[in-house]
Amino acid sequence: MLAVTVALAAAGLAVILTQSPASRLSSDFTINYSAGVLVRQGHLAAPYHQGELSAVMQRVAPDGAIDPRLPFSLPLAAALPYALLSLLPLELAFRLFQLLSAALMLIALLHLQRGAPTLPSPNVSNARMALKRRSRGPTGPASGGGKLEALPARGGVRYIGLAVLGVLAAVPAWGAFTEGQPTAWLLLGAAMIVLALRSDSPALAAGAGMLLAVKPQYLPVYLTILFAARRWRSLGAAAAGGAVVLLSPLAGGAGGLEAMVRNALSANQAVAIRLNEAWIGVIGPALPTGVASMVAIALYLAVLLALCWLAWRRPPSVIGFAALAGALAVLASPHALPHDLLILVVPAWLAIVLYRQGGLPNPLPALLAIDLAVLIDLRGIDIALGPIVMTAIVAWYGWQFRRRAARQRRPPIGRAA
To answer: 10 Å Cβ neighbour count for 231?
Structure first.
């Protein structure tokens, strides 16, 4: 597995570093950079007006390098970093954005290490670990309360090094770097939610909500994690921070919010629905375009309601619930292209935490299987393989988690019998 991971990481670096200038000009970064130019010039409503946006896109990427019909569909606040980058030439701004994305990914991993540190290695006997858990009572990461154990400094560095290697090997990371998408912002926001489970900091949660609101479909799912943990201050702060970003299009006029939603729907239709690494990518190609969008939204709302119901019932393992919610956030998303799957780093980390607690089998083979499925999807086969593989893995690991949890709850006499 380590050899395959290293090979994928090397391939990812090759893809990122050898990207052609034409590919960079045709990336999503050009759209967001053009929106940033308009915001920097004070035209706050213009990013959602296709005529004005297209004129800037053709100016910064001439000779038809990018389709001028592609819309800007992010909240207006998301254009502010691109407005600063637009002070630089497009090529230089793209490279700087890649460096900043790499830094944000590393910060996200460090937040995960603080919020959900990996427990002692499995060479400690299960009996000793069980004894430690019983002596501490329900205060470990599985229960969502109390203090979490920290790693020794050298162990923490080792795990972060392996995590960096894993992120480089992730095919979604390649897409985030080559498209210039703000996917690293989503990853950092999701990691900050996990850290808020430990610290219950309103400031931290507000920042997490603002970052997750860049792609609004992910924010409500991660709010359910704070709800399940009963982190009321963090929940309110994250919702408020997300609302500030989501309502930012109103700075350009009363119709700004409606224009953002309209552009988001048109952007979803502009991309072949089979390219979605979500359930809609599997069933959508068999449906008419309008019906597919309605089904995607209905699936998302149904999953969100189910997660809210589970959170209201107070799941016994907040870490387990967070891992499940993080995976379903992608599978149920109405729009999840390959680069969006970078946010799966968070449930992957939590799955490793649960594995080291004895709550799950080793998740690394499953993570490699998902990565290879997404890599196959990028070759353009007729069916989205990634969502099918992810659904099977989530179902199997969910069954394993429930089975092992029931075994741990069984009284000693019952186990002996």
So the answer is: 24
